[in-house]
Amino acid sequence: MTPWARWRLANHRALTDRVNGTWAAERDGLPVIVKFFTEQDWRYPLRVAAALRAQGWPTPEPIEEPLVVPGGAWVLFARLPGRPRDPGPAEQRARGRLLAELHLAATATGITGQRGGFALPADVVADPELERWLRAHEAARPEEGAILRRCRDAAVAWFDEHPGIDAPRSVIHGDVAPWNLLYDDGRLTGLLDFEGAHHTYQVADFVLSWRGYQDEVIRGYEEVRPLPEAERELIRPVYRAWMFLGLTRQPAGAAALDLSWQITHINRL
């Protein structure tokens, strides 16, 4: 049975074109959101969102039992109110402050287990499977492969030179971008999209909030929690490692494989 029939949904439309898709729909005239999770450990982001919601954060809450199917699970959420703030330096700085507050709450969840399919940044770039993947990709697409290789090698070298990193870890949201934060009359009404949630260094949350150029995010963060120099130095190697999350699950060198997102973000450093 499809989720549309199972939950009596109407007027559904896709909001993303990713494999982990998101749809807007209506049920009994009320707006809802439908998400499809492909990961084996799809319950992990729901658990993180629930733990933050218990502290008062406005995270999406399932309103039906997930519909588990081969290859993943469908989850139905009530649609949260509000809209994203307009982008700009002020928004970035406020988002940085919010991120620091979020990390305090993330630590308080007590969640210390790792999500299936994820690892610490040093382990991601040192994975022998990634080395095999890179060799195959370099052979098929040399120019793109060379950019990826330089990025990966720089991250490996940094982590080799800095063993035993002492930096705060917790679960992270993974994508604290403007479009994942909803506001209504200045009040935060929605913290969305926990698909990237896992346990790692907290500064890894800068990858998709700072994105290599939004420096006001870091400045705002430090208004709440100043970063020691060791953590500041960790931002770039963690950023580089993020470019390879899940990459080995993709076919190396395939013509249909679009790595423009990774290449764009790598070139920002």
Distance separating the two termini = 47 Å
- Would you give the CATH topology of the largest domain? Aminoglycoside 3'-phosphotransferase, Chain: A, domain 2
Class of the largest domain in CATH? Alpha Beta
- Any idea what the shape is? globular
What is the helix content? 40-55%
Output the number of helix runs.
Answer: 10
Describe the 3D structure.
The protein is an alpha+beta fold. The chain has 2 domains: 3-78, Phosphorylase Kinase, domain 1; 89-266, Aminoglycoside phosphotransferase (APH), C-terminal lobe (Aminoglycoside 3'-phosphotransferase, Chain: A, domain 2). Helix content is 41%, strand content 17%. The protein contains 10 helices and 9 strands. It has a 5-stranded antiparallel β-sheet with strand order 1-2-3-5-4, with no helix packed on it. Strands 6-9 form a two-stranded antiparallel sheet. Strands 7-8 form a two-stranded antiparallel ribbon. Helix 3 crosses helix 8 (215-224), helix 5 (128-140) packs antiparallel against helix 6 (142-161) and helix 6 (142-161) packs antiparallel against helix 9. The longest helix has 20 residues, at 89-108. It is globular.
